[in-house]
Design brief:
By secondary structure, this protein is mainly alpha-helical. The chain contains 22 helices and 6 strands.
Length: 442
């Protein structure tokens, strides 16, 4: 313990506070004393400033409240315990902390019994409370962001949400605590607040959503604003869920979104693509139900033109990319539909190694299932068709060349092994051209 020679006394009463006494030892000649004095100081400067600015979030002027929230977002070195205090809000009654209904029910459940009113002295008064010893409001930043998120001015609420983005990156525990508050802001009456909350939740990169949180998030898909819906689709692309029931819930709500807002088709398909890629093991037990397959009976073939059916296939095919056993659950028409979608929606449907179908090296092929031999045959047929042209001035000759150019360019994209052969055709004496590159210029 540091000696007390430097402290001044008057009549046996200490007139200096502890911080003043400790600060006197900052210039002591012994480095061990200086180190002990620095460690003995109670509060870091950034923490003390953070706590004082947090009180200004409840200022009478909304302009001051906005500036206070913005200032808090710049204080990235604050201690985690001070950060967590900003999300702490306690209810007080008769100078005592008031438990919520959930906490009371949990306490009764843990005790194994509920109050019957028959116990002796159940209604006896509690111990006397010394009002001078009770601190109703904890010091520091207690409840600062809770007040900011509940502020009547939407500008303050947006500033509080923005502060989450910066501060959550400096503390993983604070980021987890922010999750429930940000999800609640999805129901804000102002569109700008809802949109900003979705963007911030995407930025702090929360790994997994609970089922109750996912239910609140998916409810926003009914929002009339397309910007809100597309932002939520983007959020779901990078979100993990923990159970197959969550996958079912997400798929159901996205299909409702697709039915109510058909223009969201591409955004919904992209969202399901990432959900399938991130949750192959959760999608696997749902495949028979999603594809309506039966182990003994043939089921009717769904309509390939239905956006909802395509959405289900996008989810399943992307999950099958990381789960090879899933393809054993596919029916014959599912393989045909994969071939079609692989060609028409190649940016959404990945290449798969299908059983009994020869694949090109690297897992890619024409329409996902044609072999290299089939592609070579198509190339030879294209050459034979072009070789029948005797004169480019003949009716239909130029159209045939244009169609051939288009087919060969597409062949080179889908079958990389034949890209060179498809790009440069051998010369023919009849038409006076040497490659697709010069066909269009002939």
């Amino acid at each position: 313990m540091i000696g007390g020679g430097a402290s001044g006394v008057s009549g046996g009463v200490c007139v200096r506070d502890a911080q003043s006494v400790i600060s006197d030892y900052f210039s002591n000649q012994d480095p061990r004393v200086r180190t002990a004095a620095i460690k003995a100081m109670q509060v870091r400067l950034v923490d003390d400033s953070f706590g004082k600015i947090s009180h200004v979030v409840s200022d009478g002027s909304w302009v001051v409240r906005v500036q206070a929230a913005k200032t808090l977002s710049n204080m990235l070195q604050v201690s985690p315990q001070f950060l967590e205090q900003t999300l702490d809000k306690k209810l007080m009654s008769d100078l005592r902390r008031k438990c919520t209904a959930h906490e009371r029910a949990k306490e009764l459940y843990a005790s194994g019994e509920f109050s019957s009113g028959r116990k002796w002295a159940d209604d006896a008064p509690k111990e006397k409370v010394d009002t001078s010893a009770v601190n109703l409001i904890a010091s520091g930043a207690c409840g600062a962001f809770v007040h900011g998120l509940e502020d009547e001015m939407y500008e303050v609420r947006i500033a509080a949400v923005d502060a989450f983005s910066a501060l959550a990156q400096s503390s993983a525990s604070f980021a987890e605590m922010c999750l429930d508050f940000l999800v609640d802001m999805f129901n804000d009456e102002i569109e700008a607040v809802r949109l900003q909350s979705i963007h911030i939740l995407r930025q702090i990169s929360i790994n997994t959503l609970r089922e109750d949180q996912l239910d609140t998030v998916l409810a926003v898909l009914e929002d009339s604003s397309r910007d809100i819906r597309e932002a939520l689709h983007e959020l779901l692309c990078f979100t993990n869920v923990s159970t197959k029931e969550c996958i079912q819930l997400a798929l159901l709500e996205l299909l409702k979104n697709l039915t109510k807002y058909p223009t969201d088709r591409n955004s919904v398909w992209k969202c399901l693509k990432f959900l399938g890629c991130r949750h192959p093991t959760l999608v696997l037990p749902l495949v028979p139900e999603l594809l309506s397959t039966h182990p003994y009976f043939h089921t009717p073939e769904p309509d390939m033109d239905g956006p909802a059916y395509i959405a289900v296939l996008v989810l399943v095919f992307n999950a099958a990319q990381s789960c090879p056993t899933m393809t054993a659950l596919f029916s014959d028409h599912t393989f045909r539909h994969y071939t079609y979608l692989r060609d028409s929606l190649s940016h959404l449907v990945p290449p798969l190694r299908l059983p009994g179908r020869k694949q090109a090296p690297g897992g890619s092929g024409i329409e996902g299932s044609r072999s290299v031999e089939s592609a070579q045959l198509f190339l030879q047929q294209s050459l034979s068709r072009v070789s029948t042209i005797q004169n480019l001035q003949d009716p239909g000759a130029q159209d045939l060349l244009n169609f051939t150019i288009r087919d060969l360019q597409r062949l080179g994209e889908l079958q990389t092994e034949l890209a060179g052969a498809a790009d440069f055709l051998p010369p023919t004496s009849a038409a006076n051209y040497c490659s697709p590159r010069c066909l269009s210029g002939c």
